[in-house]
């Protein structure tokens, strides 16, 4: 079977509509932009898009850096680099618990303020999107997301 993309010159090719993956990415980019705007408006202009790797569900409070790397599916070196940035900004701290030699990551009051800004904007977006598409459709959307996240090996209630 001929490939329809090879038949026409590049400037004349018609692309198919975006796949579900592209639609999810576009939507997620919109959400991240909203979250970044909310964080900056809350008084944290130095927070960067890359910091979402640490400030995503579940929040890293009382977790080892190596466990955080595993949860976020990024290298330990990348996590430690990000944690160094976030520590210097006063958002997280690494400290030993009791007599243990292991240091755990904890959010500082500034880090919790960022988490609050994220939560508030997500709550706002959820309300707005539910209003835009209707509460019944939005409830189905959430149910589908929960089901698919469970199949991906991530139970949103346990992570």
Automatic annotation (TrEMBL):
Span of the signal peptide: none
| Source domain of life | Bacteria
> GO molecular-function annotation terms?
DNA-binding transcription factor activity
Q: Which InterPro entries match?
A: ArsR-like_HTH (IPR011991), HTH_MarR-typ (IPR000835), WH-like_DNA-bd_sf (IPR036388), WH_DNA-bd_sf (IPR036390)
Domain HTH marR-type, first and last residues per copy = 61-103
The record's Pfam families line, in alphabetical order, gives: MarR_2
From the Swiss-Prot or TrEMBL record, give the protein name: HTH marR-type domain-containing protein
């Amino acid at each position: 079977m001929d490939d329809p993309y090879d038949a026409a010159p590049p400037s004349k090719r018609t692309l198919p509509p975006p796949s579900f993956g592209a639609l999810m990415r576009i939507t997620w980019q919109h959400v991240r932009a909203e979250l970044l705007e909310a964080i900056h408006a809350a008084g944290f202009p130095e927070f960067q898009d890359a910091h979402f790797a640490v400030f995503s569900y579940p929040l890293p409070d009382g977790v080892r850096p190596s466990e955080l790397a595993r949860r976020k599916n990024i290298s330990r070196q990348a996590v430690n680099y990000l944690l160094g940035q976030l520590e210097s900004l006063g958002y997280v701290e690494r400290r030993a618990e009791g007599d243990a030699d292991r240091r755990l990551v904890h959010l500082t009051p500034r880090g919790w303020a960022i988490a609050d800004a994220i939560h508030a904007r997500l709550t706002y977006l959820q309300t707005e999107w539910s209003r835009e598409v209707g509460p019944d459709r939005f409830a189905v959307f959430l149910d589908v997301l929960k089901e698919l996240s469970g199949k991906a090996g991530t139970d949103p209630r346990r992570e």
